[in-house]
Amino acid sequence: MLGPVTDARPDPEHLLASAQAEEARRGRGELRVYVGMCPGVGKTYTMLQEAGRIAQSGHAVLAGIIETHGRDDTAALLEGLETVPRRAVEHRGTVLHEFDLDAALGRRPQLVLIDELAHTNAPGSRHPKRWQDVNELLESGIDVWTTVNIQHIESLRDSVARITGIRIQETIPDSFFDLADEVRVIDLTPDQLRERLREGKVYLGERAQTAADNFFREGNLSALREMALRFTAQRVDRELRDYMRRHLIAGPWRSGERLLVAVGSSPFSERLIRLARRQAGSLHASWIAVHVETGAPVDDDERARLAAHLALARSLGADVVSIAGDDTGAAILEVARRENVTQIIAGKPLRLPWWRRLFGRSIADRLARESGEIDLVLVHPADPRERAAPVAPPAAATPGVAAARDFGVAAAALAATTVLGLLGETWVGYRSVPMLYLLAITVSGLLLHRWAVLALAAASSLTWNFFFTDPRYTLRMLEREDTFLLVAFLAVAFVLGHLTTRLRRREQASREGEERAQALYQLTRVIAASIDFTQAAGKALDQIATAFSAEATLLVAPSPRELEVAVGPPLDQRALSVCHWVADHRQAGGRFTHTLPEAEILALPLIAGERAIAVLAMRPHDDSLRSPLRRDLLDAFAAHLTVLVEKEDMQRGVRDARLAAASQRLQRALLDQVSHELKTPAAVIQAAAERLSGATGDDPSLIAEIRQATSRLNRVVTQLVTLSRVEAGLIRPNLEVCDARDLLDEVIGDLGPARQQVQVICDEFEFRTDAMLLHTAIGNLVLNAVQHSPSGSTVRVQARRNAAGAGCIEVTNTGNSIPPAERSRIFERFARGSDARPGGMGLGLSIARHFVEAVGGRLELADEVPEETTFRITLPVDAIPSPAIPPTHP
């Protein structure tokens, strides 16, 4: 087996941008992929072996789904590993068993093992593909180890088909594979693998012999092995280049390359996209896929194929651009120059029809003539299906695509014009009749598609010859003038028909662009004219519903993992679950997407910063959103809604901040007043208690209670005064060298009888801090722990240096824990737990945090542990804050 090939992070030019790759990686689990040249090399066996070793060291390893294929040695490695029962899914009367994603997420293991990454899930599953399940595990912070064969990499699909003659149906996008933190190639020689096949370690019986005679031929295995090693070597090269860039090491860097691939509804586009992805990977370049919407009629199959091609380009990391225009070549060049493209990839035209040559409609010729300094790569279609459907975008629509209605209208126009010519021939002469036909062709060009108009032009010339020239009712001509007129008429008719249909198409594209701009303008206008968020969002949703023929609902996220309907009709539970998934994963889901495609709604996340602040849910009444241009328009609407929701969030934050500031000012004033009013009576009570203690006949227990109460009151008043002065900036830390053990001894010594419940564990070390402030903070934490501990339990106070060299003091009480709902506000002023004993004011923890932060430290509540609560103070050992004013203490 080859050693591990580690990819610390994806090459920034291999994906869209390094920033996006790093953003996608934040908070994610780590992904390890075991790659083999084909089944039987030992990917699953090696993965289970290594997983078993780390499971024995104490890691929580979960076998999500493992395919043993009846191999006893592989099944034996599952012993001792926790497994997830498979989820039963019924499909067409057959029960299929799939990976249970929700069960794996619920167990929260450190590592999940997933076999056969390219597997297609059963219909009705949350995700169509298993790699999407793995992606969700990674986004939840869970590490994943998985296996895949090299032929399942999307960009290599065509190469594998040419080598083996088998077209792989299940693939994973390169953009997901690039996110792998580590790739391990499991390598065997072809002879070793064929020997395993003969021994029955890959397939059994007749299936093994069939495999040996077909896919497992030595030539196939050698080619696949080379492909696996070469593909992995490219990752190592990208890692090296990335390392040299990060460390500013000089090297022969290529200037920035940028590729463009023309995408249409032709089956050939699929191969062009994969080729562009491989080219971009080898050049370490970014790339874009361009589709030109010409307005030519397309059928449902072509529309679905186009949507699949654009989705494939996105999944492989392309930046997809849809542009409207009647001239495909000019539109591609416009995008290429605007995006600073250095190389264009397009299909080579085969058997170009004569009429397209006549009118200059060869896209390749146009690109070659006008591309200038941009390189042009023309790819020859290898598959017979691709040759039958050249890679021309929809501008090259054929007569079979045209609607029968348009040909019917053209036939009716031809008949009407012929009748009118026969009736008027006596007055105008038969040589004037072609003008009537040209008029009909011109009008038809403004209403019908190109092929119907060109058919009308050809039929008009034949009809004029048949009905109006001598000899009548034949296609022969006696006069040379008539022959010349017929040829001229035919040429003018074709040119006029072509130009009028082109003009109509351009006018249609211009109108559609104007409608999109008008729709966005209206959306901006109604948002600006609204007086509050609810009104603005309601009007915006009305605009969206009208523009896209759909019901629209806006859900806002007041906090992470929480959604509530702000405007629009309510959603059922299934639709809400789709919206929650979209918000959690910050990607579109539902109808017309690859996630939950069977849902009735299409949900788009409205992202601001690092989270989805809202979700736009739409219930379309038709399939118009399959169009790339319509989807782009919807994305533009969603961007405006994002700004609207973000603005409302900012305004709400300003209002909350003002309210909080006013509340803090009121609290500070109250604290100052209470402190002042309580300090004098407390001093009087304490002095009276001291005098009473010297008198005779008094009950000593009463005097002790008075002393204890007044001491507690004085301590609270002193802390309130100090807190007020810290917040006002009147106190700066008085830094001095403190011994950890001496400080804790002083804190425990001030506890009185409560010290019996405290256990101190202290390492020997010193640090610089303000002893008084830190003494008070630790004392508050210990008193809080004692008060909330069951009788007879122990409070543990531990001081040590952590791995970073910082002083760390932990106060832990056992017997209870803080409920999750109260953990976020435990340090707020006057915050008291639901099980707090009477008598406290809810200020101890708030004062402790302020004092710790005043000395440059951090006080936090440790991770939740059942029946246990731990507060952790972390202080830098060597950091010495510079006081702005001389140290001052009350």
Structural description of this entry:
The protein is an alpha/beta fold and 890 residues long. The strands form six sheets. The chain has a seven-stranded mixed beta sheet with strand order 1-9-2-8-7-3-4, with helices on both faces. A five-stranded parallel beta sheet has the order 12-11-10-13-14, sandwiched between helices. Helix 23 runs antiparallel to helix 24 (700-727). It is elongated. The two termini are 71 Å apart.
List keywords for this structure.
890 residues; alpha/beta; seven-stranded mixed sheet; five-stranded parallel sheet; 28 helices; 26 strands; 49% helix; 16% strand; elongated; disordered N terminus; disordered C terminus
Assembly form of the protein: single chain
Structural class: alpha/beta
Proportion in helices = 40-55%
How many strands appear in the DSSP assignment? 26
Mean pLDDT: 77
Shape: elongated
Strand content: 15-25%
Uncertain ranges: 1-26, 251-255, 386-402, 879-890
Biggest beta sheet attributes: 7 strands, mixed
The rounded distance between the terminal residues' Cα atoms is 71 Å
Count of alpha and pi helical runs? 28
Strand order of the largest sheet: 1-9-2-8-7-3-4
Output the radius of gyration.
38 Å
Compact overview of the structure:
The protein has 890 residues and is an alpha/beta fold. It is 49% helix and 16% strand.
Write the layout of secondary structure elements.
Elements: E1 4-6, H1 18-25, E2 31-36, H2 43-56, E3 61-65, H3 72-76, E4 82-83, E5 87-91, E6 94-98, H4 101-107, E7 111-114, H5 130-139, E8 143-149, H6 157-164, H7 174-177, E9 182-186, H8 190-198, H9 205-213, H10 218-246, E10 258-262, H11 268-283, E11 286-293, H12 300-315, E12 319-324, H13 328-338, E13 343-347, H14 354-358, H15 363-370, E14 375-379, H16 384-388, H17 404-428, H18 433-445, H19 450-468, H20 480-529, H21 533-548, E15 550-559, E16 562-567, H22 573-585, E17 589-590, E18 602-608, E19 611-620, H23 628-694, H24 700-727, E20 736-739, H25 740-749, E21 758-762, E22 766-769, H26 771-787, E23 795-801, E24 807-814, H27 820-823, H28 844-854, E25 858-861, E26 868-875
